[in-house]
Amino acid sequence: MSTDIDDPGDEEPTLPVKISLSLGESGDMWVARDEDTGVTSQGKTREAALENLDEAVAGYHGAGESPSDEELRTMGINPEQNTSGSLDESDVFQ
Predict the structure, then answer these.
(1) Is the CB of residue 47 less than 8 Å from the CB of residue 76?
(2) Low-confidence ranges of the chain (pLDDT < 70)
(3) DSSP string of 50-80?
(4) Tell me, what's the pLDDT at 29?
(5) What is the pLDDT of residues 12-38, one digit of tens each?
(6) Is residue 40 a contact partner of residue 59, using CB atoms and an 8 Å limit?
(7) Which residue ranges are recorded for the region named Disordered (predicted)?
(8) In a domain, 94, yes or no
(9) pLDDT value, residue 86
(10) Domains: count for the chain
(11) Domain containing 10 — which CATH number?
(12) DSSP 32
């Protein structure tokens, strides 16, 4: 979690270092923001917001694995049609 202290012998930390944490406008979600990257996440508790931020920042830095075909199907995505391309060619980002 973001509040953990890394071993000083570690290389560059991948977890957020400068964090802002605030209650969202609706008052029912906490918002955590990594000030260095601009990555923002939220959670129902402060702890959940920080844990979600850790995961989001790790993804920002390229950590993680690509989803499996089964995971894509569970999300309603056809793996055969899941190809990378230009945002200009996207039906979603117009």
Answers:
(1) no
(2) 1-15, 63-64, 84-94
(3) HHHHHHHHHHHTT-S-PPPHHHHHHTT--GG
(4) 96
(5) 556 678 999 999 999 999 999 999 999
(6) no
(7) 58-94
(8) no
(9) 63
(10) 1
(11) 3.30.160
(12) E
